[in-house]
Design brief:
This protein has 353 residues and is of the alpha/beta class. The protein has 2 domains: 2-160 and 332-351, Rossmann fold (3-Layer(aba) Sandwich); 172-323, Rossmann fold (3-Layer(aba) Sandwich), CATH 3.40.50. Helices cover 41% and strands 17% of the residues. It has helices spanning 15-29, 56-65, 81-93, 107-110, 116-127, 137-145, 172-180, 197-210, 225-234, 249-257, 273-280, 305-315, 320-323, 332-347; strands spanning 2-7, 33-38, 50-51, 70-76, 98-103, 131-134, 153-155, 184-188, 215-219, 241-245, 261-264, 285-288, 298-300. The longest helix has 16 residues, at 332-347.
């Protein structure tokens, strides 16, 4: 089976990017071939099986070259007009051979737009897609409300855990930081406004007053990197809070597995993969109550500084020895995606040119 994967490719390492890499590797390990169209912000990426087009005609040209492939689109919840048009064009070009995975975001909350033309585009774009993979039931119900038949909708969580955490070595700076901080708090995500990282730093500065040996490691990149560096210096957290930047998925899991608490203070969030990885590792996961959280998550109200501090004090003392026994791999979600793609490929073999 030949699969054309269309979505954001790392770096930076967000949830969709991580899932796309995991799916690519899984499919190739199963004997399938993959080609990637990177529609993320990083347009410098290029290899023998990846292109990063800047213009729509470049996407169309790649479609033409890969017309024998099955097309698998990966979108976040913010389905703006450009993505809807891409979905429509893809579903028509790869007739009956187009799958879309919707990765959380604000889709079920925002709902169908009031603007008539955008509302019409929503309906049309999904009507021609052969299968829609949704990462949770809220999104599935929303997609069904667009008129997509339930038998074409698949609910498959994006979480997949790689059990091999020891292949890559951590940079010395990060390794030393981890070894000298107890408890170690971990935040994974983009350095952007919607993750309310100022709140996280304020709470951590108060926590350090109680536990001077504590550390906070923040994995990810974004437009606020320089501003957060200044903020860390301003409130005296040098050597206690570390901006680790982008790490590949294996290294990110290694840091997470070494942590005592996972924290996510986002103002809005979807089906967060790193949260599910923390839960899988048995790490206390303290996150904002966005309405889209697994039952194992420890919730606090959005923007509530006092509640977050109280939960960190209560939960951030977890035995690392216990967590080390819980590193079993889990790629079942990727296998389910493969079954959807294979089934579609077999049903429509006659459509391949």
């Amino acid at each position: 089976m030949k699969v054309l994967l269309v979505g954001a490719y790392p770096p930076p390492y967000g949830g969709i990017q991580v899932h796309l890499v995991q799916l690519e590797k899984f499919l190739e390990n199963q004997g399938h071939s993959c080609f990637i169209i990177n529609i993320g912000k990083n347009k410098t990426l290029k290899s023998s099986n990846l292109v990063s087009p800047r213009y729509a005609f470049q996407v169309a040209y790649t479609f033409l070259k890969k017309r024998q492939h099955l097309c698998h689109l990966h979108f976040g919840g913010n389905l703006h007009t450009r993505l809807l048009l891409l979905a429509l064009f893809s579903s028509l070009f790869f007739y009956k051979r187009c799958v879309i995975t919707i990765h959380s975001g604000g889709l079920p909350v925002w709902g169908i737009p009031r603007n008539y033309l955008r509302r019409l585009l929503f309906y049309i774009s999904f009507r021609f897609v052969r299968s829609v993979i949704c990462v949770n039931t809220d999104i599935a119900e929303f997609i069904e409300s667009l008129g997509v038949k339930s038998e074409r909708i698949f609910i498959i969580p994006p979480f997949a855990f790689d059990a091999n955490l020891k292949n890559d070595s951590l940079p010395q700076t990060i390794r030393s930081f981890i070894e000298t901080k107890t408890p170690l708090l971990c935040n994974i995500g983009l350095l952007e406004r919607e993750y309310d990282l100022d709140l996280l730093l304020r709470v951590f500065s108060r926590f350090v007053e109680k536990r001077p040996e504590a550390g906070l490691i923040m994995i990810g990149s974004g437009s606020l990197h320089a501003e957060l560096e200044k903020g860390i210096s301003k409130i005296g957290l040098q050597g206690k809070a570390l901006l680790a930047g982008d790490l590949n998925h294996t290294l990110t899991l290694r840091v997470l597995a070494s942590s005592d608490c996972y924290i996510r203070s986002s103002l809005y969030d979807g089906d967060c993969i790193s949260l599910k990885e923390a839960i899988h590792l048995g790490i206390p996961a303290i996150v904002t109550d966005t309405g889209l959280r697994p039952k194992e998550a420890i919730l606090f109200p959005i923007g509530d500084e006092e509640a977050l501090l109280r939960l960190i004090v209560e939960k951030a003392f977890f035995s690392r020895e216990v967590k080390e026994t819980n590193h079993d791999g889990d790629t079942s979600s990727l296998a389910k995606v493969e079954r959807v793609l294979v089934g579609l490929s077999e049903k429509n073999a006659s459509y391949f040119i």
